[in-house]
Amino acid sequence: MAIWGGNLASGTYLSTGATYDPVTDSWAAITPLDAPASRSGHSAVWTGSDFIVWGGYGAVGTLNNGGRYQVSTQSWLPLADTDAPAARYANAAIWTGARMLVWGGHNNTGILNDGALYDPASDSWSALGLSGAPAARYSAASVLAGDTVLVWGGQGATGALGDGASLALTSGVPSAWSAITTTGAPSARSGHAAAWTGSKLIVWGGMQGGTHLNDGGIYDPTNDTWAAMASTNAPEA
User: DSSP of the chain, one letter per residue?
Assistant: First the structure.
């Protein structure tokens, strides 16, 4: 497990972190040498060998840069800036198996529904130029579901959202968006938890307006159907 960046209650942004090894029950500091600028609200993905961080919000405002931490050498490499997407925070980020996908988020121009792909092998960005993307949002849940990325919920221009979309992947490259049914879906929310079971998406908790939620739903992408989750003995909102 790797933890990096964030901000303190005092408002200070961080550019430090650590990795945790559950086998030895021990922590090891991540080197600050050549680390990206301090930030919070950034995205992070694990490639299987490297830890990539991108975007977020720092002392100078919203960011569209990042870094790649190589665990084997305990060193940072910068990410290319050319063709990187617009600065943003609270965006979705997924490792597709070959590239990092970033989508949505928020910046000083508003809420976004565009994205891009980062290829660490070539240190290059390419735009996600597909039609049919869901409405702009930030703080949405996103998971990799086999050869599909599922995005659901989040905060939109008019408040919390209760819809989403699936993004089909071909050899790790996005190929088409399609809407997720809203029939039987949980109530609109943002900042919720999400997990992929191997066959279904589970979403739970989050907020709607100023209300904390302690319910959720189970989505079956094969049949494009939702099922309610039991509420008995569920944790507090």
Answer: -EEE--B-TTS-BB--EEEEETTTTEEEEEP-TTPPPPBBS-EEEE-SSEEEEE--EETTEE---EEEEETTTTEEEEPP-TTPPPP-BS-EEEE-SSSEEEE--EETTEE---EEEEETTTTEEEE---S-PPPP-BS-EEEEETTEEEEE--EETTEEB--EEEEEEETTEEEEEEEPP-TTPPPPBBS-EEEE-SS-EEEE--EETTEE---EEEEETTTTEEEEPP-TTPPP-
